[in-house]
Amino acid sequence: MRQNVEYDFDLMVMQVVIDLHKETSEAFSRFEISSPQAKGRLHRDITLILGCIRSLPSGSSSESGTLNWGQLDEFFLQRFGSEAG
Fold it and tell me: Which domain of life is it from (predicted)?
């Protein structure tokens, strides 16, 4: 029984991670960012959100080995390229 509960919890957390990535990246993609200050704030905000997502107890990682990698990471790389790191 305990294994089922742990499995269900893991699935729920994984779905939360997927939803966070999807909804957040879609919301940020609607922004028109033109000033360097706004771009800096967006970079900072996405970095903070990704840090929170990484702290969730999900075991999924990408080929790069990054925990809880997803759609928001891809958006971040597209938007900031080499500045993403």
Answer: Eukaryota
